Amino acid sequence: MSVPRNGDPGTAAHADPRRWWGLVVIALAQLMVVLDATIVNIALPSAQRDLGMSDGNRQWVITAYTLAFGGLLLLGGRIADLVGRKRTFVIGLIGFAAASALGGAATSSGMLFGARGLQGAFAAVLAPSALSLLTTTFTDPEERGKAFGIYGALAGSGSAIGFIVGGLLTEYLNWRWTLFVNVPIAVLAVFGAFSLLHDRPGHAGVRLDVPGAVLGCGGLVAIVYGFSEAQPRGWTDPLVLALFAAGIVLLTAFVWWQTRAPVPLLPLHVIKERNRAGCFLTMALAIIGLFGLFLFMTYYLQEILGYSPVKTGLAFLPLTVAIIVGSTQISARLLQRTAPRVLMVPGMVLAAGGMLILTQMTVHSSYATEVLPALLLLGLGMGLTFMPVFATATAGVAPQDSGVTSATVNTSQQVGGSIGTALLNTIATTSTTAYVAAHLQNPADRTRIVREGTVHGYTVAIWWAAGIMLLAGLVAGLMVTAKAPRHGAPTDTPVPEPVV
After folding, report:
1. Per residue in 427-456, pLDDT tens?
2. What is the second-level CATH architecture of the domain 267-500?
């Protein structure tokens, strides 16, 4: 995806007095995409009961979205270049709204999973278009800096808004409204796009790397599906092993094809640079743990501690606040005179420390004394890590690679979320099943044993998440060798959308 830089020929929007209203439209669409990564989390226990999902399959409500989003994001950027950013923005909005309506009306778990996958696919078209429209709407460096600040703040607060809105809609209406709510938002954004946004026509010379998208996305789907099937079948089942083998073969073929493709989806020189590769890997590993935690803590707070959906959404707020504080008040201040890994390594150690506290959870744990301190540590650690990852990954890239680089950071987030949710959910459900089988002696104790086994499964998975966080810190320490930057990043550098 090519992103216009300062100095490019201006568009009609350059002097348009309504351009700030155009920013509202772009930010509204982006908020919808980011919000959808968390809004359904709070509704998931209700949706699982309503549609009769198994514990092993429930993770597909999350992973179908993140897999399609991450797997198709780079292709979505190319499509925006080919047919025009405003056109793909509108198509993305309409498709996202239709997929949301389909998911809200789901009568089976398969229908919901399919709708979530469609949402992710249209989000992959919508997100790059929104970012590119922002750069073409605001060509003045000072105005563009302000626009990116507003855009980043809204994207960064998306998860907090998602948790709270998800809780309110689930508790006072129905879990289906966490999906239906996207329809009026998208309709408003479509009307706003037609009347307020301007764009150049697409570039007929742009070529789409469809084989690359099929190989990359297919490989990821095979691996995530393998993780989900490991729970009911076992890790050594022939189908599970075949899925993992197919995933590895497809991803290997993807890498090979990227060296041969006329216009590769992911130019390999972007990820060959040591610091950039270290940032992508650190981000993916960090998000593996974070997304798994979202899933477990949602169920723990609602099913074990008996929280309402609204109270559950509010319980996640300290985590989001801590991430924002860590990013804006600590990392942003220190990054200009500190090597990135000096922030990233302690950040991952702090996050792992928060995870370790959560491994001590029981059915009787207190939120104030055991859960809250862990969420604060985790949030600060993530905040310390996210900012230097974004800054280092996008620093010093050639103008023609700026779009694909920022999209690759986003892809590493979504892929990490997909793998983390599938892997850790499988570990948790497998551990729960083993615990119940080993401890259930008297049928009269079944309810108590199942509750204890459920929490035991969560804590085992969180142990794994803590180890993955420490691995992320090790990767950052060994691979990210960049020195402290001498000056701030330019205001026109593309800003990857924050996950939280």
Report:
1. 998 899 889 888 877 777 788 888 889 999
2. Up-down Bundle (1.20)
